Amino acid sequence: xxxxxxEKKLEKLFNPQSIAIVGATPTEGKVGNVIAKNIxxxxxxxxxxxxxxxxxxxxxxxxxxxxxxxxxTVDLAIIVVPARFVEEEIRQSADRxxxxxxxxxxxxxxxxxxxxxxxxxxxxxxEKRINILGPNCLGFIVPELKLNAxxxxxxxxPGKIAFVSQSGALAVAFLDISAKEDINFSKxxxxxxxxxxxxxxxxxxxxxxxxxxxIGMYLENIKDGKKFLKTAQKYAFKKPIIILKAGHSEKTQKxxxxxxxxLAGDDEIISVALERAGILQASNLEEFxxxxxxxxxxxxxxKGKTVIIxxxxxxxxxxxxxxxxxxxxxxxxxxxxxxxxxxxxPVESSLENPIDLLGDAKEDRYKKALEIISEDKEVxxxxxxxxxxxxxxxxxxxxxxxxxKQKNVAFINTIFLGGKKIEKASQNLSKNGIxxxxxxxxxxxTLETYWHWGEFRSKKPKLKRQFINKKRQxxxxxxxxxxxxxxRSVLYFSEAAEIMEMYNLTPVPYEEFFSEKSQKNKLKQKxxxxxxxxxxVVLKVDDQNFLHKTEKGGVILGIENEIQLxxxxxxxxxxxxxxxxxxxxxxxxAAEIIIGIKRDASFGPVVVYGLGGIYTEFxxxxxxxxxxxxxxxxxxxxxxxxxxxxxxxSRGQKEYRIEELAKIVSGVGNLAMEIPQIKEFDINPVxxxxxxxxxxxxxIKIMI
Length: 704
Description:
Number of strands: 29
CATH class of the domain at 2-295: Alpha Beta
Largest sheet: 7 strands, mixed
Strand order of the largest sheet: 3-4-2-1-5-6-7
Strand content: 15-25%
Helix content: 25-40%
Shape: flat
Number of helices: 24
Distance between the termini: 34 Å
């Protein structure tokens, strides 16, 4: 309840009528000096109070010794004092002031001492119902109010992009680049350690902010993944939300922990979660900037297919190559359009896509080509490619492209390759809402990402509710509790197999040997017992201390008869005394698939599936699917996955049954949602057959 109230009250924080700067100083180069000058000198129209017990006057203005001395209303207090003084300053004024920005460092990013400070501040937050941005942050900027409440220099022009950054230094660099590229902002907010106000609260605030049409975020971790997804789902189909997420490796995750005192989440899970919510993801800083620029300069997402128009055949071909493997497609030029193009283009011109206007093309060829191709209703996007050859009137061509955009509704971008020769034209294109790229690959990648958002927006999907089978859940919980009582963290194969059968999935035929005595009895009684395994078989150790069985010599393959089985059982007993052994049927002529569960503390689980067997880690041919999802949705996902080749006929090879894999993937998805105690889960391999036999689950590992 309190969080919802606080979200509504963020308006006072980012639109204050009065500001107090605690730690303002006349000393040049100090953060308190820069922030005070920014607020006082850049045009902010509200009241400003300077606070510093060591000065009676700063910049010719009265200076207060503490916030308590100010007897007027203060909407926002900016704290720029050493970390050890922050708590007391806030505690003494929290009854009167409800919004704080803590610029000061020295909190959770420095370790135990700093974390303790944050915990103390959290108690004040709950008790006094206040808002805190930071600590360890740059501050924020609202260009429309001429308010720079940060220690970044200058003031961007007002625009429609809100930029939220977990790194203050990155925000400073980004603002500098944006000024050169004429990118303008509604808000620029640094969140630092996000002790209280996180990306989720800001997403809620910016989602409702009328001045903000595009939201860009640089994040190193996401505090509450499920809440963030729910919030993003509310606004992602209204406003593009673009995220650059850092922390793709173990080393960068350690760097993040030391930077903001936060742990980065599982990268694959976060990526799948963001995609599901309709969030545009940038893989690097260049793509993030390109997406903000392209979307900021357009009024709608690209639709339909794309046509490339070029004056350089080689660059046109490279641009076409960049579409390989993408969902957005190049248009086929129909005969009617070709005939019209042929009427004015040189005989040597290519009328396929890309359309080559040749190196001597002037502005008239670009103009006529754009007008003719725009008659094709299948074409929704244009990429105009240009290299500045000696005879190329670069600026005139740019102006014709601008004229075309102003008269048409097509989505158009340019790839003008060059340096000084294209600089003026590029600036003119940008001023007129056309995004120019330096190279084809980034242009096409950015176009594809934005196109995906347009598809998402047209469908407006909703987050699904998971159906929990309570009866099944209770049975499995009983098995889990039994394992926990026995101080085990890994289930025996028989226990894992029993759980799989509850989801109508079939383990490989197997037989367990608990001890040497039970082994002898079962072998004697095999004809009358359920020992129905057909040779050849595989013998395995089934013990939590030997999870990597092959490396430890705990697997013997290709046992052809009973004599070999008895011999190998004796060998295994001697090597692994007292452990449980299992014998399983071996499989021939099967495709080997891996299916598993990865779980993130913030976002929850995803199901991983792909090519299994001994080459799993080497090939890494896997895809990810976030539950809840139906078997039909799993099937549609598999059709677009790296495994899709298995479900198509090729060179006389019969296809495998996609609906069978979808059933297994969906069962594992239900397991992930129903049994949160499962820390790790994988089946490697699942044996799939294309001769009518049922798929079988072989090595099932469940860790709790």
